[in-house]
Amino acid sequence: MTATTATPRFARLRTLTLTGIATTGAAAVAVTLMPASAQAAEAPQAAHSVAAPSRDSHADPKGTTGGTLDGWIKQSLAIMKKKGIPGSYEGLHRNIMRESGGNPNAQNNWDVNAQKGTPSKGLLQVIDPTFNAYHVAGTAHSATDPVANITAAANYAADRYGSIDNVNSAY
Predict the structure, then answer these.
(1) What's the rounded Cα separation, in Å, for the pair 64 and 55?
(2) Interatomic CA distance for residues 153 and 136, integer angstroms
(3) 33-84, pLDDT tens digit by residue?
(4) How far apart are alpha carbons 41 and 31 in whole angstroms?
(5) Could you give the CA distance from residue 170 to residue 91 in angstroms, rounded to a whole number?
(6) Does the pTM of the predicted model rise above 0.85?
(7) Residue 85 buriedness (CB in 10 A; 0-12 / 13-18 / 19+)
(8) Three-state SS for 59?
(9) Could you tell me the CA-to-CA distances from 90 to 30, 40, 77, 104 in Å, in that order?
């Protein structure tokens, strides 16, 4: 092997390694909230359609509500407090960043739920049956509305796990 062929091979190997890490990380983000009866796990696929903004940006990337992640979490916490739903800012933020990267328009179109016609949506990747079952009065009846999505997901997590704060991995 000469010096001229060693460098391109090393560069290719480094590119493949970084691609594998990026693919693995992207697959780890795609998890779904679902009722216990619908928990059919499927191995994640590398390609999916969840688009997330930069982790430095907490603003609504498409301008659907004009809010920010910080504002949506605080609005949800106020509603949760009135309704007796446990959870903290930190627990909500941690789970939102893992589920959607803070993108209220994120939608998973590749997993088992999507294949059955119920893709997970929004900040906390809720499927419509879960959203409908755990929707909280006083919020929009839309799974993609940031405050409604957060509040319904926190209500589900409270019922299933005691609090969104107890959720530290895939649901």
Answers:
(1) 19
(2) 10
(3) 444 333 333 333 333 333 333 333 444 444 344 699 999 999 999 999 999 9
(4) 10
(5) 14
(6) no
(7) buried
(8) strand
(9) 20, 28, 11, 18
Binning the chain into helix, strand and coil, the percentages to the nearest 5 are 50, 5, 45
Which single residue is written with the structure tokens 């010096």? 3
Contact 98, 29 (CB under 8 A): yes
What's the CA gap between 104 and 89, in Å, rounded?
Answer: 17
Helix ranges, the chain (H): 3-29, 69-83, 89-99, 112-115, 128-134, 146-161
Q: 158 and 86 in contact (C-beta within 8 Å)?
A: yes
Closest residue by Cα to residue 102 from 110, 92, 113: 92
Token pair belonging to 14: 């480094």
Q: How far apart are CA 92 and CA 154, in angstroms?
A: 8
